[in-house]
Write a structure and sequence with these properties.
With about 190 residues, the protein is α/β, with parallel strands linked by helices. Helix content is about 30%, strand content about 20%. It has five helices and eight strands, in the order ααββββαβαβββα. A hairpin with a 5-residue loop joins strand 7 and strand 8. The protein is globular, with a radius of gyration of 16 Å.
Length: about 190
């Protein structure tokens, strides 16, 4: 049942072929485009797998790794400027990030580009006033260490303080959902 839900979510979000939804989005005609369903998966602490690895270079050229954020809750959002649901959720993510930053909460947000250029992503981030960083597209290498949890764009992962995947949202979501998931992980005791 869960595998079917993942396949459905993947089919409903942004793909990457010329006849895919993403290909249509790149053409700008939105013909046949279907948005993701925002399916949420929360993983109980005892069922979480080992910590995940992710590293890369931010759009601005600075190196970053998930291991440097150990002890904090990290929200990873996998995106492409070519994906309309992603553009819809950018203000939602920015608003959540701004609230955590203003509160001094131990939370990091990081975008992770998929099939996108630094120029397009930077322009999209500027257009929507996004201030949290994003990692450059690495040809999909970043997905290899994420336990198969990223199957479509946009996907958001919430990483617990131990570096483990604790929650996933497949498709577009809202600030309320992002904050609820991050707050849940912040409330967990550090071990």
């Amino acid at each position: 049942m869960a595998a079917a839900a993942v396949v459905l979510a993947g089919a409903a979000a942004c793909g990457d072929g010329s006849n895919s939804i993403a290909g249509q989005a790149k053409r700008g005609d939105n013909k046949g485009y279907v948005a993701g369903n925002g399916q949420i998966e929360v993983i109980a602490p005892g069922k979480r797998k080992k910590p995940v690895a992710l590293e890369g270079t931010a759009l601005e050229g600075k190196a970053w790794s998930l291991s440097s954020a150990r002890g904090q809750v990290v929200l990873l959002n996998f995106w492409g400027s070519w994906c309309p649901p992603r553009q819809k959720e950018l203000p939602q993510l920015q608003s959540a990030w701004t609230r955590y930053r203003a509160a001094g909460a131990p939370v990091q947000f990081m975008g992770v580009l998929q099939k996108d250029s630094v120029t397009s992503a930077s322009a999209t981030a500027a257009k929507f006033g996004v201030r949290y960083p994003s990692l450059r597209d690495d040809g999909g290498k970043s997905l290899l260490g994420l336990q198969g949890k990223v199957v479509t764009v946009p996907t958001t992962l919430v990483i617990d303080k131990q570096g483990r995947i604790a929650a996933r949202v497949s498709g577009e979501s809202t600030e309320t959902t992002f904050r609820s998931l991050v707050d849940q992980m912040l409330a967990e005791p550090a071990t």
